[in-house]
Structure formats: structure tokens, C-alpha cells
């Protein structure tokens, strides 16, 4: 599959359009800005850590600007100090403040996408007004509130501006892998691989993605060690052998449906990423429940700060544990042996040399460029499902998607053999499937998945409680779009 086709498939496979047309009616102003952010994330092939932070920062700016026009709501930076008189608490003022805040945050986070964001701002009837600091106007409120959020986030340790090393979001820790692409010095530790580029014309050696992420400022996350993360098994132990054998057996028995699930949740390059996937679900839920602007401000604020925290925890554990990926473990443990496993494009299950085992992934995304434990997908998804469950006061989801025949990126034209429908009754079920998908895809061991789910649920609960404390006595929403 060519790069251009992969970019189309990466979005289409979600079964959700950026327009979120699952239900009739115009999406709220917040919902439409969220769609624009996801488009930018996809176009820029933004990594999941950076994407989760960008979504959290932008929706925090929107929340803080909106809070000035609500009785009871409390902004994250100024508390109630920006609150305007009740006579100004109109839907038009809320919409304007939200749009100006979203615009200011978005161009700070995605400067190359400024034309996209300016077009949306003008669609809503506004013009860029970044110099306005008059709190008597929605633009002024937005600039004051968002400016403070951005100033704090520029110092959060993410290295967004590239002050350290000159590269935006570049490593600030000096992380160096123990293993190289040609030498495995420690079979317990992560090994970077030499992988092909998307166009297949060259190769490159993986570099650990944003190793500093585990130390950036969180929203509600508690100290890392308080989550009691279970350590993964060591090379040479029976547990290590069992974890590795399970991945081989899953590969051997892969069904067409499991392949579809593995790819549906993959959210690799040029996708909206795992955090974006759950934002698209939230867009759908917003329209399903007719949540409206007030509710959307709160929903996306809570959801994205929870996923930012999930990403921080997951990446801290990835660096702290620096654990081996399944592709390295299987090839090491079964070197010189014949095993039954997926044999590659169109080959199905066959007998292969253990050192040639490969995950069910396209060659250019064969395994992520960072360590294994815990699974980011599992942690993001569990945290997101917890927020959606608590916000809607129900675990009911009721969403389904049909993946067209031949949609696969790993086996284009072959998988699925026929149109395949995936459906989730509850948010929890969807989150569990997202975690399991990475085991069917050969990306994670069971411990990385299950521990990610466990901790992710706790992170979601904690983020929800903190976000809810900012809602105050503000109504739940459904007041206009």
C-alpha cells in the first residue's frame, strides 16, 4: 500500500468521519474545534504523547474561557477571577470565547496548520484578535485565560518549544538504549529496530519517542509509584517464556476478525492516534446524547486531561522498565527453532524460523519506537472509557462500525475477506478490546495490556474527579450548539 493510500485507510478504518455524521444535527462549536484538531493531528502524523497533550491543552483553554461565562465553574488558572456578570452569560459569548481560545491554543501547538484553524474561526464569524486583552469581550477573556494555560504548559517539561536541544519535543533526558539494532546486550530491555520507511525506498533505525514524557506536569496524576505497577517477568523465567509463547500462539491462530480488530485499533502513522480515536467516539456520544456546548466543554476537558495523564504514566513506565518488545523476545527465545505463526502477506499460518517471526502489522509500522510496558493503547483507552462512563452516568456505548473487505494495511485486498462489523455494547468493552487488539497485533504482552488497563481506569477516575471539581454548580449542558 502506498503512503497516500495508507493515510486514507488509517482514517477510514475508524468507521467515523471527521464530520461525525452518526446523528443528524449540527455539532457544537466545541465538537467542531475538536474535529479540526484531529485533522491536524492526522495530517502532521503527530505521535500519541504529543497528540494527547495538544488535545488537553486546547480543551483546557476552551474550558477556562467558557468558565468566565458560567455561574459555579472555576477555571484551572484564574479560578473564578475572570467571571463575567450574569447578563453576559449568553450562548453567543460562550461560543465566541471558546472559538478564540481554541484558535489561540491550536496555532501555538500546530503553527503549520494555522490556515485550517483561521478558516474555522472565520466560519464562526470571528477574526483573529490575539492582541485583545479586554476582559469585557469574549476574545479578551479567551486570550487572557488561554495565554496563562499556554505559558504554564510551555514550562511543563515537554520541551514543546525546543529550548533544550533545539528540536520541539526533543528528548531532554539523554536516554540511550542498552541494545542496538544489531546487538542484543540485554534481552530484558528495549531494542530499536531498523525498519523501512513508508514508501519502502529506504530504512532507518528507530529512536525512542519522547522519553521525557513521563516527567511532564500532569493534570491529576499521582506519584508514579503509588499505582503499584507490577514488574514484567525477566528473561529466563517461566513467566517470560509463557508470555512469549502466548504471543506466538495468538499469531498462529489469528482469525480474520482478530486481524480486523488489530488493525482497527492500531492508530499508527497519519491517524488520529489512540487519544484521537476516543475523541471521535466522544464526538459521536455528544451527538447521540445531544449534549450541547456547555456539556461538550466539560466532556472534552475531562476526557483529554485524563488521556494526557494516561500518556504521562505509560511513558514513565516505558522508560523506567525499558522492557523488551515481543518482536525481539520471540526472535530471541525461538531462534533456531521452527514455529507455527502468521507468515506474512497472504501466507496465513505456516511454519517459519523463530528468528523471522513478525507481528501482524504493515512493514513500516512493524513495532512502535519505544519500549513495551505498559501499553499506551490500554492505558489511554481505559482512562477514556472511565471518563465517558462517568460523564454519561452509564457504561452504555452502542456503537458499531463496518470495516470494508480488503481494507487491511498489513494485507491489503485480502483482509477482511468480507465486510466485517465490530460492535461495542459498553465503553468498557471497547476499551478492553483496544487493549487486546495489541496482543493480536503482536505488539504487547498480556502484562503490558492488563496493567495498562488497570492503571488507566484509576487514572480516568482521578482525572474525572479533579475535572468535576472545576465544573462547580454549572449545569450539565444541552443548552444550544
TrEMBL record:
Secretion signal, residue range per the UniProt entry: 1-24
Residue span, Vanadium-dependent haloperoxidase NapH1-like second helical-bundle domain: 299-462
Alphabetic keyword roster: Signal
Domain DUF6851: 58-192
Molecular function terms from GO: peroxidase activity
Pfam families, A to Z: DUF6851, VCPO_2nd
The keyword Endoplasmic reticulum is annotated on this UniProt entry: no
Claim: Signal is one of the keywords in the record: yes
Protein name per UniProt: Phosphoesterase
Amino acid at each position: 500500500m502506498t503512503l497516500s493510500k495508507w493515510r486514507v485507510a488509517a482514517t477510514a478504518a475508524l468507521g467515523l468521519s471527521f464530520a461525525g455524521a452518526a446523528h443528524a444535527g449540527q455539532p457544537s462549536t466545541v465538537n467542531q474545534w475538536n474535529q479540526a484538531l484531529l485533522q491536524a493531528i492526522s495530517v502532521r502524523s503527530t505521535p500519541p504523547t504529543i497528540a494527547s497533550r495538544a488535545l488537553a491543552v486546547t480543551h483546557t483553554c476552551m474550558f477556562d474561557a467558557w468558565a468566565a461565562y458560567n455561574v459555579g465553574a472555576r477555571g484551572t488558572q484564574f479560578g473564578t477571577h475572570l467571571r463575567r456578570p450574569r447578563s453576559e452569560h449568553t450562548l453567543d459569548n460562550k461560543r465566541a470565547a471558546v472559538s478564540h481560545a481554541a484558535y489561540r491554543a491550536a496555532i501555538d501547538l500546530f503553527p503549520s496548520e494555522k490556515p485550517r484553524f483561521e478558516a474555522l474561526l472565520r466560519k464562526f464569524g470571528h477574526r483573529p484578535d490575539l492582541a485583545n486583552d479586554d476582559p469585557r469581550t469574549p476574545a479578551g477573556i479567551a486570550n487572557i485565560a488561554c495565554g496563562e494555560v499556554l505559558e504554564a504548559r510551555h514550562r511543563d517539561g515537554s520541551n514543546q518549544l525546543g529550548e533544550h536541544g533545539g528540536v520541539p519535543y526533543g528528548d531532554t533526558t539523554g536516554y540511550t538504549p542498552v541494545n542496538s539494532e544489531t546487538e542484543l546486550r540485554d534481552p530484558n530491555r528495549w531494542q530499536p529496530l531498523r525498519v523501512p520507511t513508508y514508501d519502502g525506498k529506504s530504512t532507518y533505525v528507530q529512536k525512542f519517542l519522547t522519553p521525557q514524557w513521563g516527567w511532564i506536569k500532569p493534570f491529576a496524576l499521582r506519584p508514579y509509584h503509588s499505582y503499584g505497577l507490577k514488574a514484567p517477568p525477566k528473561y529466563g523465567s517461566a513467566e517470560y517464556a509463557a508470555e512469549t509463547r502466548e504471543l506466538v500462539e495468538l499469531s498462529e491462530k489469528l482469525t480474520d476478525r482478530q486481524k480486523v480488530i488489530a488493525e482497527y485499533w492500531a492508530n499508527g502513522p497519519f491517524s488520529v492516534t489512540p487519544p484521537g480515536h476516543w475523541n471521535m467516539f466522544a464526538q459521536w456520544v455528544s451527538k447521540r446524547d445531544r449534549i450541547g456546548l456547555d456539556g461538550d466543554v466539560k466532556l472534552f476537558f475531562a476526557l483529554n486531561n485524563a488521556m494526557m495523564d494516561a500518556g504521562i504514566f505509560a511513558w514513565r513506565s516505558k522508560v523506567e522498565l525499558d522492557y523488551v518488545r515481543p518482536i525481539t523476545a520471540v526472535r530471541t527465545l525461538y531462534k533456531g527453532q521452527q514455529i507455527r505463526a502468521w507468515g506474512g502477506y497472504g501466507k496465513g499460518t505456516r511454519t517459519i524460523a523463530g528468528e523471522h517471526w513478525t507481528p501482524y502489522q504493515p512493514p513500516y509500522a512493524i513495532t512502535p519506537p519505544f519500549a513495551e510496558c505498559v501499553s499506551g493503547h490500554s492505558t489511554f483507552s481505559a482512562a477514556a472509557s472511565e471518563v465517558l462512563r462517568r460523564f454519561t452516568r452509564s457504561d452504555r456505548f452502542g456503537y458499531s462500525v463496518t470495516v470494508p473487505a480488503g481494507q487491511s494495511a498489513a494485507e491489503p485486498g485480502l483482509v477482511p475477506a468480507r465486510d466485517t462489523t465490530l460492535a461495542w455494547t459498553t465503553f468498557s468493552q471497547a476499551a478492553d478490546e483496544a487493549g487486546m487488539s495489541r496482543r493480536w497485533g503482536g505488539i504487547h504482552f498480556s502484562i503490558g495490556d492488563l496493567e495498562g488497563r488497570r492503571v488507566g481506569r484509576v487514572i480516568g477516575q482521578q482525572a474525572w474527579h479533579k475535572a468535576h471539581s472545576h465544573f462547580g454548580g454549572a449545569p450539565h449542558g444541552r443548552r444550544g450548539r
